[in-house]
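Table S4 entry, Myo-inositol-1-phosphate synthase.
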Amino acid sequence: MSQGTAVDGTRTGVWFVGARGSVATTATLGTLAMNAGLAPRTGLVSELEPVAVAGLPPVEGLVTGGHDVIETPLAHRAQVLADGGVFPPALVAALGAELAAADSRIRLAPRRDTQREAAQAISDDIRAFRDEHRLDRVVVVDVSSTEPPAESKPELDNLAALESALDAGSAPLPQSSLYAYAAFRAGCPLVSFTPSPGATLGALTELAKQQALPWAGRDGKTGETLVKSALAPMFATRALRVRSWASYNMLGGGDGRTLADPRAAVSKTTTKGAGLDAMLGYHVDGPMHIDYVEDLGDWKTAWDNVSFEGFLGTRMTMQFTWEGCDSALAAPLVVDLVRLTAKAHERGENGVLGPLSFFFKDPLGSIDHTLAGQWRALTQWCEQLGARA
């Protein structure tokens, strides 16, 4: 079965910002492989019964496209990832025609003189993608390089002020926020999978509400933070006092290269460390460090050292090492988020989707950072979505 052909006729577009990057390439190839019966659905939370009860759009109906700043063919990018052990090289060979078709739906990111013109060009490309492929809806997914935190500007907090700034030809928006603006103007929901500012700016959350669009974010929870969100509540409920929680991360690939810039790394370390105090109920010394190691490729390693004390003040430690393939961990979550956000859009929900906090390091729309609590919120919401069918 080719990409975009669903048994029930539902066709959902996925417009990637960073469509030839590692995560988007892995998600695209993975979708093709599942549709062709060449890969199981391991890692898809949306296939678990408590989530699937929502009646989600089928994987077979997903059609990928998007923007990127590079012209490297998708098949070549996939081969590089296969050579690095991200997925079997045989999949790239078997899906050559399908990858070429997916590559034809990727366009170079438009360059324009003003942000107003750029936003219009982005919106036009998304609308053309939706119309050309007869899609029921398009979910825009930002998997581009991490940006530094946004500078505080008055025009970013109010939609009318932002529109005036864009009309005046100024460039107040970070690139991720420009794409969020363009997505909402095109009538599309958004998934912010990176720690970049995206739709978190006040003017853009206002625009999403105005356009009655749902969005989810931010920064996909794929590795060390996933483990932390399961372990920290264990210490809290066992009444063991954590004294410090030190984290050291080594990361290769494009994401690691980007995070070698201290300005971009601030965004990542902020979201990675956001929930520890909330889960434990008190402040903990939690130093965190990220190093770029080119040799690791698409793989990442995290080493954590937890110092805690128990009965009578006895000092103890726990250490764990997490080694994972970044794209293989992230790609299925992207597919999950597309299906869930598309369903929310179909059901008329708007604004930030708090029940999707399960998937994010910085769970917008929710104050619960614990994995178990986030899972309960997700499954209860999915049950409600299914009941409304």
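The CA atoms of residues 155 and 162 lie 5 Å apart.
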